[in-house]
Specification:
Blueprint lengths: L6 H28 L1 H8 L6 H21 L5 H22 L9 H30 L8
Helix pairs in contact: 1-2, 1-3, 3-4, 4-5
Length: 144
């Protein structure tokens, strides 16, 4: 007999936790990003700040993507970089579209640089994982 933390039951529980929480964050993140006035009415934290709500949506979406990916992919480095790329890319777009709401002209460029560095890191990581798998027959990104 296996305990709840081991085997299929444990994996199912972990997947449910990741997918349920990831799904909830994706819903609320998309709501905050796409319908900020409606979302602001729900959370009722004055004063209303549209750009802040867009950013909140971006970060919730990034966390939601990370949680959902973690349910199906054991490569923590890839999962976290993809989550950051998701949130970071939306954040860059927010700063580009919301420039009239405040901030600095350089914000979009600085954030885009961070996203580019994360993308480069992900590409290198995935290439290294592929090379490791081809060279040894073991994919280290799948090990616990």
């Amino acid at each position: 007999m296996t305990s709840a933390g081991n085997g299929r039951v444990g994996r199912t529980l972990v997947a449910i936790a990741c997918l349920l929480n990831g799904g909830v964050l994706l819903v609320f993140g998309l709501w905050a990003l796409l319908l900020p006035t409606s979302f602001a009415a729900l959370i009722d934290f004055p004063p209303y700040n549209e750009h802040l709500l867009h950013d909140l949506g971006a970060f919730q979406i990034g966390i939601g993507v990370s949680l959902c990916l973690a349910a199906v992919w054991s490569d923590a480095t890839s999962v976290v970089l993809i989550g950051f790329l998701t949130a970071g890319t939306i954040h860059v777009i927010n700063h580009s579209l919301d420039h009239e709401l405040g901030g600095h002209a350089a914000d979009s460029w600085g954030l885009a640089l961070l996203v580019a560095v994360a993308a480069a890191g992900l590409i290198v990581h995935l290439r290294q994982a592929r090379a490791t798998k081809a060279g040894t027959g073991v994919d280290r990104t799948q090990l616990p």
